Amino acid sequence: MDPLESYYRHITRRSFFKKTATGIGGLALGSLLNGPGFAQPADPLQRGALGAAHLAPKAKRIIYLFQNGAPSQLDLFDYKPGLVDQFDKDLPDSIRGEQRVTGMTSGQSRFPIAPSMFKFSRYQNQQDGLWVSELYPHTGRMANELCVVRTLFTEAINHEPGITFLQTGNQLPGRPSMGSWISYGLGRVNENLPAFVVMISQGFGNMQAISNRLWSSGFLPSEHQGVNFRGSGDPVLFLSDPRGISRADRRRMLDAVAKLNQEEFDRTQDPEILTRIAQYEMAYRMQMSVPELTNIKEETPATLDLYGPEVTKPGSFAYNCLMARRLAERGVRFIQLYNRGWDQHGNLPHEISLQARATDQPQAGLLQDLKQRGMLDDTLVIWGGEFGRTVYCQGGLSRTNYGRDHHPRCFTVWMAGGGVKPGISYGKTDDYGYNIVEHGVSVHDFHATIMHLLGIEHERLTYRYLGRDFRLTDVEGNVIRDLLV
Amino acid sequence: MIKWEFIGRLHPLVLHVPIGLIFGLLLIEGLSWVVDSGTRAWRVCRKAYMTLLALSTVAAAVTGYILSLEGQTDGATLIRHKWLGITAAVVSLVLWILTIKSNTRVQAVFRVLVLWGLCALMVVTGHFGGQLTHGPHFLSTHAPPALQAFLGSAPLETRQPSADTSITLYGALIQPILDSHCVSCHGPDRQSGQFAVHTAEALMAGGRSGPAVLPGAPQDSELMKRLQLPPDEAGHMPPQGKAQLSPVQISALAWWIQAGASSDPGVNRDEIPQSLLSLLPQPDTTGQSSPEEISSHMDEALMRRLEDQQISIQRITQDDPRLWISFPAISDRVTDETVKQLMPLAPWIAWLDLSDTHVTSGALPWIAQMPALTELNLRHTGIDAEGLKSLVQNPNLERLNLSGISLDDTVVETLLNMPHLKRVYLWGSNVSQAGLQRLSAPRIEVITDATPSEVLSTDPNAVAE
After folding, report:
1. What does the domain layout of chain B look like in residue ranges?
2. C-alpha dihedral, A193 to A195 to A196 to A202, nearest 10°
């Protein structure tokens, strides 16, 4: 075929318009890559799509301890002592209102109130104290650092849309994850590690599926998707060279592949090819940086003790918390942990105790470790699930055993460090822990606030796709200034 | 019934017609010298053009005069523009008569001379008109220096208040905001709405809508109301399409009004809320304004060399030329020599993160020569208490991370001597409790580790307290 003809055939309608719109497509696309060996952007100081933050960042990085499955706010942070007298009484219709309930409890003939069986203690903080349940003694002792939001609410009532909403700002799959937005907007600090790293730990009992859609870059260039570090074996698959392959061989192989890819790019102008070249290079650099990252032998026993006994077990929440600190030290912008196993529809007291034991000391230890290193001031730690759990019981109810269904109307998350007010709680729920009484925080508000802490004005980080500008907060979101230092 | 004001507001539309026509007419006159122009068609064409030119010039002058009656604008530039415009209208009528009547060769030459004169007049009139619309420095700001001198209006000197601890709050914080966003329409050259803000007196005097600032009551002050109206609202300031104030700038104005809207000297830097400090000029940076300008001053080749070594250099914000430098990719290879390499960038380095590197006290004399430095992270490095003494020279150092470094109590005196130190991280530094106590003066916050919270109560009834 005539070479010119074949070139034209490879140009899709969309890429043609994209190129003619941006003048020289290759030049514009070159700016997507700023690693060594690739087209350098005009200004060497530019980082990410924004070049630099809009506002001076309070948080230089984020560690998001996502508690997958929806922890019960009523058994951990949202103390409702008055409910003890309401045991097994029906939840008043005036409280439940028109609230839809999931298919799992909509068939129940009644909605009996299940007070938390756990004791709470009031820990000193910067206000009049923070009530935390006996499940979380270590976390309670960090009350002076916590900024507890009791009134986050969501629109989703099931896990998949709920977690997708929290992570991408939309219940439907396909949008970029929060970490991808940050990577896209602010770029990398450490050329040898991705800007967005994901780690998963398994829980106890009923676990909800999570998939790599949740850390996908959606319509953003795919180099911004989260890189999932695995819990066992090689943290990144196929990271080690096969036996008999030297690093020089690997380099030669990559150079050859890059050359072929570059030729393909010259022919088709498909920007994803450049992304692919960049990802091969990143993988090559990670062959060096990741083994160093996961070498926890250099940690002192005192540090390891902070995280509790599980810390040396790869794949545990404790191990991932330690890893999160090590990634934070190495300049990774967005460290996303998923801890599974909070979906306690039945047998809640037993299962939540196991979950709490696995998370309490590691997360408190992480805060302490960051504090000691002087990193808590510029690292934002976020803890929370995708929704809350109901005050009414799902299934059989006794004083010592009950279950709770999904509850989107209010749930508790906490943040620490990174420019949030330490030692406060925000928002009030009603006596049943069912509805918000004051200071409701929507998921969009939550996202806007997080981005603000990173120095991003959430309305000004956008990406044009399908003919319109998209952003993490879509058309909503207000920064909750009461939470900021 | 059409309102007069409407006719006046057609001025910006009408005024472009004679400008276009006069160049057309010049072309016709020019061509008539080189081609045979004796035909009737040429004459008709020239006369028709001239008639339209005269009519539109008069129309521009009349609409402009009506617009000036609205009194939106005042000042010397307007007076010049008005009289030049009227003169242009008169000259265009004269030229029209000449064109209709003249047929001798001498008359034709005279006519062309008047035409050139009118053209020059229009350029000057248009220039003043442009200044009224876009501000006095619209054209000159990016003009070559020679042309700037000719235009006689170099951009306003950016006010560079001193960075003393005691400053005129108004001069340092408020006037620069007004200078950058407001004075082109509300300043000495033009007072839209009979309101000007180039001095504190003018700002306090208010404008046609009454007083702009009510001390102590930002929510009732016209200034704040206008700034916070939705951008598409008619009264919103600055008008849609012009550069808008940032949220921080708006809160600075609100804070200043709340605090009494004083322009007296003697407000202490420490009284300004942390969130507004970013607006203050950063002491001892090079006094350049835009990040692009700064970049052009920085040695680009050097910058690339540093980036090739995987040193992370980035701006703190898009509008802030100061730099944030860190070494996460190469921390185990960073030595004192690496710090020395950064020295050409020293005036701009604000955040320097050397944590977990091999730097020693040998790097500190270099760091002492970074005047803009506010945040320094030396965690887990090989520096010692003696070396830290050189950091007393850093005038702006606010945060210093020394955690995980073996020090002793001699460091306390050094830290107390750092003029602006606000936070110091000393976990694992072997400084005694007494030393930490001494350091935790009102000014300095000492961070070691998180103090575990005590349990205050377990009594549910206490919740009602």
Report:
1. 4-151, 166-279, 291-447
2. 40
